[in-house]
């Protein structure tokens, strides 16, 4: 989104502009991976920063593209890291996928084939849908031999693709057959992140990898429900009744978090604790510019005081 | 390629134009999957048609995008189906990948990581290169846990991606790390076919699926050595010393075979025995038009006589 004038240069967060931002915002939307944690390790100063924001009356909302967990599983992960967060404060792309089907009145008697992990199947079940595939198909093999016909369920009306560390040829063929052969079958992507910090020490192929594979075999493009699509924003708005102009999206990715914030009309803050470096941000080829940037969210604590 | 005028309408092969084509061509280039066989089943009338063409002095050349076999393995497959073809008459994308590295003076002390099957590793070895990955990594698992670092060989200077029915997250991470982290690492795709007749009864995700996955995680585009790239044509021309205008490319795919033929300046004949239907050919959105089309290659036998 462009305001019509030339894009503004991102400002390094300072005591002055952090204070201005703080007072003009009612809710902080945080991405998780690269902002709150990396893999299973908290990023420095996160608990105190979140406590400070809560104590000053700010709403905290967690918007994550990682679909491997359901909202329930994410709440557990927060708790295990010593942070009190409720399921209702979490908007994961696994939840978004289930809600997309709900909003679009996907017939509950139809089935959903999943390339992805537990989180998607959990959210589908909570929303009243029948999911197939996912972890259960992780060890299935195919045997390419004469007269072999790979069968698929003609009653699958949607394929949901997210990050899947158990991706295999069986699942790729299953999803491909459903999308190519079942009339009207939807192709839903939780998100298209190229890579993510699945572990604390390094990046790994993200949902963008699995989604691209299915695009490659079907030559179709998916409906994306995670960031930067603003699909999740409708739920947020209904729940919190806060104008997007009084929300600040805090994330570590330009093409998902910051673009999502800008697309939705939020304020935007890039943190450099995840995948984006300052040189990537300031590279002349980058045209996704946050309003502010800083090294990590605990800078807010240092700049604003406890 | 366009001759400057409006594109000609593809002609159904007839006794008259088949005879004209036959006399104006010295070499027939055949795609294999969907033209010669489907999976492991010969398409009707193939052996007699090839014998007739050979007996009338035509060169036969087999140009396949399927990288799962080496030229040696393809020759065996032809023999097992009762067709006499030599290795030298076969140009597979597995061979093309190895030749691409050779022509570009890839240092033999560097290594090549393979997402793909035996064919690529065989051809790399025959060309004097050290291949890693492929079938050997088919059962490897990853364990996403704290402090786990996935190691990769910094000496890998090229990643070759082809069809891999044993695709998994281990291989995707390995290839992604090499391409993203090893300076100058090449990303070579054998081809980008979306699907192929890996079995006789149905289509399965093709190399385009695996290649797209690696594009998705690396956000890089590969160098494609198979059809429709004309890389293999240089070898053909060196070997056979026939002008491309006196070659006819016979294939079942518009976006690989026919485009390859047109890009190289060959005559083109589409057969409907594989993935392309007459309605796809004649759909107004299709702009890849062969000179001729017919149902299967044995129509040549029927139209020209024995």
From TrEMBL, chains A, B:
Any one Gene Ontology cellular component term annotated for this protein: chloroplast
Highest taxon, organism lineage: Eukaryota
Active site annotation, chain numbering: 31 (nucleophile), 33 (proton donor)
Keyword hit for Transmembrane: no
Cofactors demanded by this protein: Mg(2+)
Chemical reaction(s) catalysed: 2-phosphoglycolate + H2O = glycolate + phosphate
GO biological process: photorespiration
Binding residues for Mg(2+): 31, 33, 252
Keywords: Acetylation, Chloroplast, Hydrolase, Magnesium, Metal-binding, Phosphoprotein, Photorespiration, Plastid, Transit peptide
InterPro entries found in the cross-reference section: HAD-like_sf, HAD-SF_hydro_IIA, HAD_sf, PGP_euk
CC cofactor note: Divalent metal ions. Mg(2+) is the most effective.
Residues that coordinate or bind substrate: 227
Gene3D superfamilies: HAD superfamily/HAD-like
Protein name (record): Phosphoglycolate phosphatase
Species of origin: Actinidia chinensis var. chinensis (Chinese soft-hair kiwi)
């Amino acid at each position: 989104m462009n305001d019509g004038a030339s894009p503004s240069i991102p400002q390094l967060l300072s005591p002055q502009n952090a204070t201005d931002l703080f007072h003009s915002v009612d809710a902080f939307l945080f991405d998780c991976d690269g902002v709150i944690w990396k893999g299973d390790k908290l990023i420095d100063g996160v608990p105190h920063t979140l406590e400070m924001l809560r104590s000053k009356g700010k709403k905290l909302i967690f918007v994550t593209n990682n679909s491997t967990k359901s909202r329930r599983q994410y709440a557990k992960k927060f708790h295990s890291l010593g942070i009190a967060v409720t399921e209702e404060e979490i908007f994961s792309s696994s939840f978004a996928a289930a809600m997309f089907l709900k909003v679009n009145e996907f017939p509950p008697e139809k089935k959903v084939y999943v390339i992805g992990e537990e989180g998607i199947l959990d959210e589908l079940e909570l929303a009243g849908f029948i999911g197939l595939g996912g972890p259960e198909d992780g060890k299935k093999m195919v045997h390419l031999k004469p007269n072999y016909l790979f069968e698929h369920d003609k009653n699958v009306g949607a394929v949901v693709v997210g990050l899947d560390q158990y991706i295999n040829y069986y699942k790729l063929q299953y999803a491909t057959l459903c999308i190519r052969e079942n009339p009207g079958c939807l192709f839903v992507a939780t998100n298209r992140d190229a890579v993510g910090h699945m572990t604390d020490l390094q990046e790994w192929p993200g949902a963008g990898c699995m989604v691209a594979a299915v695009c490659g075999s079907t030559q179709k493009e998916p409906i994306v429900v995670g960031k930067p699509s603003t699909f999740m924003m409708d739920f947020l708005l209904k729940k919190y009744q806060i104008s997007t102009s009084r929300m600040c999206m805090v994330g570590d990715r330009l093409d998902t978090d910051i673009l999502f914030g800008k697309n939705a009309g939020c304020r935007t803050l890039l943190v450099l604790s995840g995948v984006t470096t300052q040189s990537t941000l300031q590279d002349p080829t980058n045209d996704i510019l946050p309003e502010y940037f800083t090294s990590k969210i605990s800078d807010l604590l240092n700049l604003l005081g406890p």
